[in-house]
Amino acid sequence: MPELPEVEALKDFLTEHLVGHEIVRVLPVAINVLKTYDPPLSALEGHRVAAVHRYGKFLDLATDGGPHLVTHLARAGWLHWKDRLPDGPPRPGKGPLALRVALETGEGFDLTEAGTQKRLAVYVVQDPQQVPGVARLGPDPLADDFDERRLAALLAPERRRLKGALRDQSLIAGVGNAYSDEILHAAKMSPFKLASSLTAEETTRLHTALRTTLTEAVERSRGVAAGRLKAEKKSGLRVHGRTGEPCPVCGDTIREVSFSDSSLQYCPTCQTSGRPLADRRLSRLLK
Question: Could you tell me if 167 and 138 are in contact, meaning their C-beta atoms sit under 8 angstroms apart?
Answer without folding.
Answer: no
